[in-house]
Amino acid sequence: MITAPPPVEVEKNYINAEHGLKSWLLTQDHKLIALLYLISVTAFFFIGGLFAVFIRLQLATPTGAMFDSNTYNKVFTMHGIIMVFFFLIPSIPATLGNFLIPLMVGAKDLAFPRINLLSWYIYIAGGLFTLWVLFNGGVDTGWTFYTPFSSSYSNGYVIAAGLGIFINGFSSILTGLNFIVTIHRMRAPGLTWFRLPLFVWAHYATSVIMILGTPVIAVTLFLLVLERGLHIGFFDPAYGGDPVLFQHLFWFYSHPAVYIMILPSMGVVSEVISTFCSKKPFGYTFIAFSSVAIAVFGFLVWGHHLFVSSQSVYAGMVFSVLSYIVAIPSAIKVFNWTATMYKGSVRLTTPMLYSLGFIGLFTIGGLTGLFLACLGMDVHLTDTYFVIAHFHYVMVGGAIMGYLAGVHFWWPKMFGRMYPEGWSKLSAVIIFVGFNLTFFPQFILGYMGMPRRYAAYPAEFQVLNVLSSAGASILGLGYLIPFVYLIWSLKYGKPAGPNPWGATGLEWQTASPPPTENFEITPVVTTEAYEYSTEEVVHVG
Amino acid sequence: MDSNIVVAEHAQAAHRAVRHHFESAEQQRDASTVGMWVFLVTEIMFFGGLFLAYFAYRHAYPTAFASASNKTDLWIGAANTTVLICSSLTMALAVHCAATSKRMLLVVFLCLTLVLGSVFLGVKGYQYHDKWVHHEIPGQNFHCEGCADATHTPLFFSLYFGMTGLHATHMIVGVGILLVLIFQSWQGRFDAAWHTPIENFGLYWHFVDIIWIFLFPLLYLIDRSGKGLS
Ligand SMILES: [Cu+2]
To answer: Which residue of B has its CA nearest to A172?
Structure first.
């Protein structure tokens, strides 16, 4: 039976419990650390976005109106580095994951609060390195840092940029470590593994990738720094090394990194769809285990980035087949979300709009990934705009849509205020339209042969490029609107109450914003997750 | 009934070292141990990149690696390995003393571990110096007398310095932590009821040792004579 206590008006919550800058910068509360991350990843998102604006301005004309080729190299490199390492990787885990995982497992905090705060400082230190690089003239290797260009020939600040990413990696490792231990050891009484929300499962899988993959990119960049700084060679043929080894090591992390970006979004979408259909997700165990399967198989496909390197063609075949296989768990999720909505009473709220956008765009991104996993096709499409369009459908259409879905879904929980519904729906539509207009033409451009990372292009490609640039300006506007109304809502939004969406899940059982200790009394869980008809979360005193 | 359990758990949480967000000392120790193991997994992956590079290049250039490995000093390396294994023993004894609340012995064994660890680092420094004198550091006027396959011999030394250097960095961090732990043990911070930091540091120290146990044969022993693969 439902014996949840009546929503009590809690005067003290985690935000107003203490005041002053010090209470923020020295906090060990996972919720405040999540907000610190939210502010910093948003800042990096807009810096990375600024470089995207430069890219699209440059490509509005065939000859490139803004920069010479060398500067353009730096522009797309900084865009890639900032967006991948300082926005996409930490975006959902470090903000929403940090905020919600203790709440969802009924704990007072993450297992290691001081390590959690440390991870934010490490992130900031890595970020400052990168900003230093930025203001001193940047780096021009592409975010992929391929050797021997990066180690022997580039004139940019490769060492500083590499160290920035190296340092930042440890913030990601510590976050993953904290999540794993918390999910293993801090669950409330009665909260068994198969009663966990799918968001937690997704973050568990993400954390596994973070702790297994990130150390490898760290050591790879370490070797790159040794080679460039001290001429202790590993990759440059001039030192006897093999550049392809760098590519193997780099993609061993950087392919799974895509799943660090997309799995948390999938977790968000599972929560949102279940809530706004008021139904248990179809095939809970399938969705849960597909997250784990993605994490496992994701580590076995990196070689699809090396089809046109000197990798053996037989290795290529194996990687090709494995890349097809990794699509299966992703497809399972898409089918299950669709089946959940089938005959459900779907409420088209803003988070739901973003989630629907996620499903569509992620499906396109995933399926075009299969084109690239096909050996013969990939020879034609490698390093063209087709690749750019594919991974932006996954990372922007997928990951950022999921991020915005999650931010809107849990905003009332985080701040106790509702955002304006009209504006938020409008911006969701603008983002969807702007996104497709930006990136769909790039599929065609790539198919026609336009290479990535070029500062200029033949005149016949101009129409599609102008369409893309026009789409980017719409997309940029779409991102600015939520930025404005979400800040506005902090002061002027309607009070949300503990559970504005009528969702299940422990985080909705406590006040909005939650008290510092999360729950007045440690909850005891007696039912499975998503029990929409017979919700039974019992609080004992 | 449930409420009794919760009350009982709160009552347990009396030890001074238990932090507010844990229900019990038991849960806290458990979490720290799991956390330490997860951290060691990341360390394995961290070294893993270098081990992969080693195996790839050793497989590709066996002659270069066999002849270059002759340049390592077998007996000094073997002696240093013994020193490190002994430090693992003293560390294990230190953990035992912490678990049985023997404060003075705990301090003694931690100090012994510190001394042995420092000896290892000192010897390593001597070996590095030797390589420097003989121009066997890649990128610094490198040349390797009597080495076969001059193009690829620098790779062996790059890996030698990369792997042992990363290992030594872990040792230096370990020595730093040891200093803190010795001070805290002296103050009597650890007893049978709570000595998680000692236990976890023990895990770390043994891990660093095990890395060396792999590095020693890979860099010093395999196919020194060059007969097996030539
Ligand atoms: Cu990939």
So the answer is: B42
Alpha helices in A278-349 (DSSP H): 284-298, 313-341
Q: Domains in chain B: how many in total?
A: 1
How far away, in angstroms, is A324 Cα from ligand 1 center? 11
> Does some domain include residue B11?
no
List CB contacts of B107: < 8 A, sequence separation 6 or more.
B182, B185, B186
pTM: 0.92
Question: Rounded CA gap, A457 and A55, in Å?
Answer: 13
Q: Name every chain A residue with its beta carbon within 8 A of the beta carbon of B166.
A: 219, 222
- Residue type at B211 in one-letter notation: I
Closest CA of chain A from B172, distance in Å: 18
> What residues of chain A, 124 to 143, have a C-beta less than 8 Å from chain B?
none
Contacts of A134 by beta carbon, 8 Å cutoff, 6+ apart:
A47, A78
Architecture of domain A21-540: Up-down Bundle (1.20)
Query: Which domain does B111 fall in, by range?
Result: 29-220
Q: Is A219 on the interface with B (CB under 8 A)?
A: yes
SS3 of residue A348 by DSSP: coil
Per residue in A184-235, pLDDT (tens digit) is: 999 999 999 999 999 999 999 999 999 999 999 999 999 999 999 998 999 9
CATH number of the domain encompassing residue B66 = 1.20.120.80
Q: Identify the pLDDT of residue A541.
A: 37
For B73-83, the pLDDT digits (tens) are 889 999 999 99
Q: How many CA atoms lie within 13 A of A426 on its CB side?
A: 10
Please give the helix or strand (H or E) that residue B50 lies within, else none.
helix B25-60
The parts of chain A modelled with pLDDT lower than 50 are: 1-2, 8, 10, 534-541
In a domain? residue B6:
no
User: For chain A, which residues make up each domain, given as ranges?
Assistant: 21-540
For chain B, give the mean pLDDT. 87
Q: What mean pLDDT comes out for the span B25-32?
A: 88
